[in-house]
């Protein structure tokens, strides 16, 4: 597609979490530091929440890649599990082998504890990462509490980190799982990036993808990108990718305001405006374009 045209070795704005593209924004680095410290303490549960597209899955992958070799990580991306399936999934991640498929839940838990003790005796710490936890059934969330009971006299045998959207808070407020909520020792809420970080974010991803030339996105393009995506990483990636496609289609080496404008118009989640909102937006776009043009011409110094 546009890789050769822009001198890139891979797509810079894929929405698939790739830790090579991890950008240490203020919120993402603080969240990662919190997770690394909490994982070392080994007490209770850790909760990470954030709106759709703010980088929870990327953070989860980066955490797993950042943990040292003395950690054993169990990653469970499927939230639609009943308690029995959750324990079996965890057992599989911990490489527990059963003689029979019809083994009872208490036997599964016993086998998990034996495996955790073996890992503990070999100097390993176990971290369980659960993604999209807001979609977990209440009874499965309650079953997580049983995992916190697996411990020695000194410390827990595993650390549980749950990642979810803000709706996770509503589930944790359910009376039947209040004991689980009490056991959350660390928590962090991911917010969108700061507006002043988007320029560096764009340049970072382009550089990782192999770009070594001059600035590819013009200032008006970046201004519109920030305005319409609200600096949410996933939306930034989607619009930036489509903007590159537009620039490539027009045979240009840089991305202009109008390329971003076309990309935004092609993104359904960014076009939920009524006619009045659209008119206000167009007036802001026009005013911003004039101001940026005057700045580039040197009228404001």
Keywords:
5-stranded parallel sheet, alpha/beta, 10% strand, 301 residues, Helicase, Ruva Protein, domain 3, 2 domains
Low-confidence stretches: none
Q: What best-fitting shape do the alpha-carbon axes yield?
A: elongated
Task: List the total number of helices.
Answer: 13
Return the CATH architecture of the largest domain. 3-Layer(aba) Sandwich
Describe this structure in words.
This protein is α/β, with parallel strands linked by helices. It has two domains: 26-190, P-loop containing nucleotide triphosphate hydrolases (Rossmann fold, 3-Layer(aba) Sandwich), CATH 3.40.50; 196-296, Helicase, Ruva Protein, domain 3 (Orthogonal Bundle). The chain has 13 helices and five strands. The protein has helices at 3-6, 26-41, 56-66, 83-93, 105-121, 138-148, 167-172, 178-182, 198-208, 219-229, 233-249, 257-265, 275-296, and strands at 45-50, 71-76, 125-130, 159-164, 184-190. It has a five-stranded parallel sheet with strand order 2-3-4-1-5, with helices on both faces. Helix 6 links the parallel strand 3 and strand 4 (159-164). Helix 10 (219-229) runs parallel beside helix 12.
What is the topological layout?
Blueprint lengths: L2 H4 L19 H16 L3 E6 L5 H11 L4 E6 L6 H11 L11 H17 L3 E6 L7 H11 L10 E6 L2 H6 L5 H5 L1 E7 L7 H11 L10 H11 L3 H17 L7 H9 L9 H22 L5
Parallel strand pairs: 1-4, 1-5, 2-3, 3-4
């Amino acid at each position: 597609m546009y890789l050769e045209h822009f001198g890139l070795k891979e797509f810079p704005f894929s929405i698939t979490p790739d830790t090579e593209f991890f950008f240490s924004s203020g919120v993402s680095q603080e969240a990662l530091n919190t997770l690394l410290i909490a994982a070392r303490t080994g007490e209770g549960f850790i909760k990470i929440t954030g709106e759709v597209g703010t980088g929870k899955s990327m953070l989860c992958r980066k955490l797993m890649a950042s943990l040292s070799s003395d950690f054993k990580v169990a990653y469970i991306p499927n939230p639609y599990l009943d308690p029995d399936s959750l324990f079996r999934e965890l057992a599989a991640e911990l490489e527990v082998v059963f003689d029979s498929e019809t083994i009872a839940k208490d036997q599964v838990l016993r086998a998990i504890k034996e495996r955790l003790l073996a890992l503990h005796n070999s100097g390993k710490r176990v971290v369980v990462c659960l993604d999209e936890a807001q979609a977990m059934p209440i009874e499965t969330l309650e079953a997580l509490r049983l995992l916190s009971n697996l411990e020695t006299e000194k410390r827990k045998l595993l650390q549980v980190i749950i990642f979810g959207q803000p709706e996770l808070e509503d589930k944790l407020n359910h009376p039947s799982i209040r004991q689980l909520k009490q056991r959350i020792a660390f928590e962090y809420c991911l917010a969108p990036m700061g507006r002043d970080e988007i320029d560096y974010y764009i340049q970072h991803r382009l550089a990782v993808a192999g770009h070594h030339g001059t600035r590819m996105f013009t200032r008006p393009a970046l201004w519109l990108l920030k305005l319409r995506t609200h600096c949410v990483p996933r939306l930034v990636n989607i619009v930036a990718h489509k903007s590159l496609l537009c620039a490539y289609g027009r045979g240009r080496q840089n991305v202009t305001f109008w390329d971003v404008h076309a990309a935004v118009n092609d993104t359904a989640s960014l076009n939920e405006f009524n006619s009045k909102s659209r008119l206000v937006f167009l007036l802001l776009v026009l005013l911003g374009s004039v101001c940026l043009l005057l700045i580039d011409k040197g009228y404001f110094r």
